[in-house]
């Protein structure tokens, strides 16, 4: 069964002017249910992650203290891009727990989703770009620390480099980071992933998919993983106002197929978090994200 972490009561802990980036997290599950791809039985609502030891496997203790007590500096809060609140921190903790739960479901069913997450700009001691805590890093460290997985590969295909993920796992032998992103896009100060592929602006479908196929294989060979995390941002679309790439919706779907088919054929469980998407028409974002679920459902179930 396809299991999906959903956060229905925690989608909009923000003032109205900041809500557009969050809106898709309600629309995607609604669209999937409307099309009959999933039903209520596919969804679970994560609890708040309360185990501070799990958080501190990934994030600096002083940063976590400032975050939970809402005492980040003005510059730290500005770097995140959201006004900090208790409700927003709780939402991030639910996202992290959802990705841990989703990873465990992936080990049971082959693939599982968090309908939010992909907060890859959060580093060990900073938040950035709408990311406070790094959900896939938290989950990867949880699996390794508890000896549930011994070798993890994080595949990040958001248009923006997974700089926080790269920083967290710099020198970490059990977790291999692969980021394929716009070279001239945010963040302008890149961190070093184990495998970074910087793409030129306006790259098209065929070239993108060729580069991905080659480097996906390379990342798997180099990491020899027994668990995969996939950050499936749809800001690679040509319609995205922040992306600078030129992918069609069909190529974005083919991207997901390449990743998920490879995982399935190799018998590697894969946890998927949704990442970014900033097309002016929310339908483009929702359609592209829904395609990721549809590909997984068709391949696995």
Automatic annotation (TrEMBL):
Domain Histone deacetylase per the UniProt entry, residue ranges: 21-289
Family: Belongs to the histone deacetylase family.
Keyword ATP-binding among UniProt keywords: no
InterPro entries cross-referenced by the UniProt entry: HDAC_classIV, HDACs, His_deacetylse_dom, His_deacetylse_dom_sf, Ureohydrolase_dom_sf
Superkingdom: Bacteria
SUPFAM superfamilies xrefs: Arginase/deacetylase
UniProt protein name: Histone deacetylase
Hydrolase in keyword set: yes
A Pfam family it matches: Hist_deacetyl
Keywords on record: Hydrolase
CDD domains, sorted: HDAC_classIV
Transmembrane spans: none
């Amino acid at each position: 069964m396809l299991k999906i972490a959903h956060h229905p009561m925690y989608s909009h802990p923000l003032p109205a002017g900041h809500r557009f980036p969050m809106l898709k997290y309600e629309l995607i599950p609604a669209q999937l249910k409307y099309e009959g791809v999933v039903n209520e039985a596919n969804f679970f609502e994560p609890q708040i992650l309360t185990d501070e030891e799990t958080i501190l496997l990934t994030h600096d203790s002083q940063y976590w203290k400032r975050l939970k007590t809402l005492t980040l500096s003005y510059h730290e809060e500005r770097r995140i891009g959201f006004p900090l609140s208790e409700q927003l921190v709780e939402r991030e903790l639910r996202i992290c727990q959802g990705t841990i739960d989703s990873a465990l479901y992936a080990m049971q069913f082959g693939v599982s989703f968090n309908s939010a997450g992909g907060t890859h700009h959060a580093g060990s001691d900073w938040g950035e770009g709408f990311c406070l805590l790094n959900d896939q890093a938290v989950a990867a460290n949880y699996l390794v620390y508890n000896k549930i997985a011994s070798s993890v590969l994080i595949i990040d295909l958001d248009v923006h480099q997974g700089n926080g993920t790269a920083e967290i796992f710099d020198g970490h032998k059990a977790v291999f980071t692969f980021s394929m992103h716009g070279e001239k896009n945010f963040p302008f100060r890149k961190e070093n992933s184990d495998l970074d592929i910087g793409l030129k602006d306006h790259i098209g479908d065929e070239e993108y998919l060729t580069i991905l196929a080659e480097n996906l294989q390379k990342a798997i060979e180099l990491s020899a993983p027994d668990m995969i995390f996939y950050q499936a941002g749809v800001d690679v679309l040509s319609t995205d106002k922040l992306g600078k790439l030129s992918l069609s919706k069909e190529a974005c779907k083919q991207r997901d197929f390449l990743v998920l088919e490879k995982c399935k054929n190799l018998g590697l469980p894969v946890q998927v978090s949704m990442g970014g998407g900033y097309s002016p028409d929310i339908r483009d974002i929702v359609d592209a994200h829904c395609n990721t679920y549809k590909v997984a459902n068709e391949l696995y179930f």
